[in-house]
Amino acid sequence: MLSSVSRSTVAALAIAAFCLIAAVPTTWAEIETGTVTRPGPISFSPWSSTVPAVALALAGAVLALRLPRHAMTWILLGGGLVGALNGLGAAWAAYSLTRHGGALPLTAPAFYAGARLGPLMNLLPPLILLFFPDGRLPSARWRRPAWLSLGGTGLAVLVFLTVPWHVVEPGGPWPGLDPPLVSLPDDVWRSLFGLAPVLIVVTLVPALAAFAVRFGGAGRERRAQLRWMLLAGLLNVVLLAAPLVAGWLPADVVFVAGTVALAAAVLIAVGRYRLYDIDPVLGWTLVYGALAAAVVVVDVAVFAGMSALVEEPMAAVLAAGVVAVLYAPLRSWIQKRVGGLLRGEPYDVVSALARRLEESAGPEELLLAVASAVASAFRSPYVRVELDRSGGGVMAVEHGARRDEGVVVLPFAYRDVEIGRLTLVPRAGTRLAEADQRLLADVVRQAAAAVRATALTEELQQSRERLVGGVEEERRRLRRDLHDGLGPTLAAAALKVEAAGNLMERDPALAREALGQVRGDLSTVLADVRRLVHDLRPPALDQFGLAGALRHAAERFGDGSLSIVVTTAGDLTGLPAAAEVAAYRIGCEAMVNVTRHARAGRCDVRLIATGGTLEVEIVDDGRGLGRAGQTGDVTGVGLLAMRERAEELGGRCTITAGAAGTRVHAVLPLAVPA
Predict the structure, then answer these.
(1) Backbone angles phi and psi of 10, in degrees to 5
(2) What pLDDT score was predicted for residue 44?
(3) What's residue 441's pLDDT?
């Protein structure tokens, strides 16, 4: 036995199938009828009911497969059923009456369905506005306004269903068109028939108010759903106004296009297919819909005013001229206002992300904020954000269940240096639209700056701690070396000199031996002093300069199988001491790595001083770092030291491993001379 949900699905699909099948005999009957004078009550083209019926039925069938008990599913199917019966009835009755004299079976009920069921479609707008998109009213307090809206529209429809046709249109008698349900004087019927359209418009106001209230209090996703309905409503308004601008546009075309747009909006919004691709379409619809309305108003006003002063042809020319002059600035003004109105939804994500980034304390919290914001903005089932650590390794956070198929990887950089990657899986069956890509770029750009700034702040604090600790350790080492090494040695030398003086007269040979010991002690002291000085600043820099010191080091590191060549460009004289020492240390460390690990045959060391920066580049043709194509690999102690030396001066150092060889590139800022 089928479950209740399954029965709902079967019933919904059966109605949809009937609507689709009914289009076949409707089309056949219309073709067979040909170009004839149709009876007045069914003088319209049946396709204007059949096409909307098919659109509504298809939308309802798609929703029935996912949401068989949703109110919008049955509203669409109800509209499709009414349209299908209306079109089929009109086509069959016209074929029977014009080709067979009304002798075919079911002519009377078909004639009634074709002439009378069309007004039932007036129930669609209030039903959709009241129950869209979740199938419920905005709140319980809207029950009475909803009953008033539907009751008023239903009363107007009842009038259309029962009014004697001779009140609507003289002629007849028409078979089965006037069922004896209500007997009222013709004057009363004429009053009711004239009041019915007004009642439909007035009772639509509560439904519009419910939609506006729902839109004002909606969240991000719900507002995206409501915007699709807003787009359909705007299209209907534009289509209704179109005959004023283009008088040739048939009313049947307007009705068909408006109903199809309504069905598509409900299907997309309730089924949540590509909700967020609406903004560009909605924006242009608002711009040109408002522009068309403004042009009509201006044209009519100018034409009416000029007609009172000049002849009618000249008034038309003047009106066209005024409209032409106002068109461009009017379009720009409307577009700017609409752009400001619609910009909020996706860009609210960026502003909300900015607030969360400001409130986040550390890089990991920043990355979590980015992942959460991106997943929410793009309804992504999986987002991963990775940040390369300065000390090696990767910090990564994930949002959602991990997936490896259909991922979009977007690297983000800080000052042209890649610092991480954002991995995004678009929601099923979709791809990132151009607007989504622009928004994602904005998010990543903000994230890169914020994450890097926070990471640099932490690195700066750590660098300060290391600097203070290093200074204190250096002071402790110097104190230990001076106190435990130089101090006792010099004290012993002083005592030996004093002893030698005392022995000079009594035992000159022993005195000379003591002085020889003093000479040896002083030689030891001199070696210790040279060692201390070398640790403070390499003497080769003062003796040979930066380029000469590196060439001197290259001679030590090179051997028969490795050729190290040092080249220079620019003015290397007068370099700041800190930059000079950093460049020397980076160059020496890189040459040590090449000698020990690269198994290279050639190594090029280049020094380039240009534009206030000093570039140090070391390239070898060895075996690389073992991960070809990987940039910024700083897992080794020596490689980390090179990067830290560059960053301490506000520069950068990148290590790139290719298929063969490694490239170390450091950029060091130079102090501007006074």
Answers:
(1) -60, -45
(2) 80
(3) 67
How far is residue 509 CA from its own chain's centroid?
93
CA 240 to chain centre: 35
Task: Say whether the peptide bond before residue 173 is cis (omega within 30 degrees of 0).
Answer: yes
Tell me the residue type at 517.
Q
Cα separations (Å) of 382 from 368, 403, 405, 498?
13, 7, 11, 83
Pairwise CA distance, residues 259 & 257, whole Å: 6
Which one, of 513, 514, 516, 477, lies nearest residue 499 by Cα?
514
Neighbouring residues of 9: CB distance < 8 A, sequence distance ≥ 6: 64, 65, 68
Report the percent of the chain where pLDDT is more than 90: 5
DSSP state, residue 559 = B
Check if the beta carbon of residue 234 is closer than 8 Å to that of residue 286: yes
| 8 A C-beta contact, residue 613 and residue 653 | no
DSSP structural state of residue 43: -
Nearest of 445, 444, 456 to residue 362 by alpha carbon: 456
Q: State the Cα–Cα distance between residues 121 and 397, nearest whole angstrom.
A: 52
Q: Identify which of 624, 655, 621 has the alpha carbon closest to the alpha carbon of residue 638.
A: 655
Give the pLDDT score at 2. 46
pTM of the model: 0.48
3-class secondary structure, 634: coil
Predicted local confidence at residue 3, as pLDDT: 47
3-state secondary structure 397-447: EEEECCCCCCCEEEEEEECCEEEEEEEEECCCCCCCCHHHHHHHHHHHHHH
What are the tens digits of pLDDT across the range 410-446?
777 766 667 777 788 876 555 666 666 666 766 666 6
pLDDT at position 375 is 75
Longest alpha-carbon distance in the chain: 161
CB atoms within 10 A of CB 307: 15
User: If we measure between CA atoms, which residue out of 636, 565, 567, 634 comes closest to residue 601?
Assistant: 565
Tokens of 322: 């005024």
Stretches in the chain below the pLDDT threshold 50: 1-4, 273-289, 291-292, 296, 299-300, 302-304, 306-311, 314-317, 319, 323, 327, 338-345, 627-634, 672-674
Q: Which residues pair with 606 in a beta bridge?
A: 567, 617
Which residues in 219-265 belong to E strands, given as ranges? none
> How many CB atoms lie under 10 A from the CB of residue 604?
15
672: DSSP letter: P
Q: What residues contact residue 459 under an 8 Å CB cut-off, 6+ apart?
A: 390, 647
Provide the pairing of β-strand 602-610 with 563-569: parallel
Separation CA 317–CA 154 (nearest Å)? 46
Tens of pLDDT, residue by residue over 510-554, are 777 777 777 777 777 777 776 666 666 778 888 888 889 899 888
Omega before 133 cis (within 30°)?
yes
Instruction: Look at phi and psi of residue 362 and say left if phi exceeds 0, alpha if psi is from -120 to 50, else beta.
Output: beta
Cα 104 to Cα 99: distance, rounded to the nearest angstrom: 10
- Among residues 376, 430, 435, the alpha carbon closest in space to that of 408 is found at 430
How high is the pLDDT of residue 278?
Answer: 40
- What per-residue confidence (pLDDT) applies to 629? 37
Report yes or no: 210 and 141 within 8 Å, Cβ to Cβ: no
Residue with token string 């920066």: 613
Rg (CA), the chain: 43
Beta-carbon-side half-sphere exposure of residue 197 (alpha carbons within 13 Å): 3
Asked if 198 and 152 touch (Cβ cutoff 8 Å), the reply is no
Exposed, middle or buried, 277 (CB in 10 Å: 0-12/13-18/19+)? middle
Report the alpha-carbon distance of residue 455 to residue 457 in Å, rounded.
5
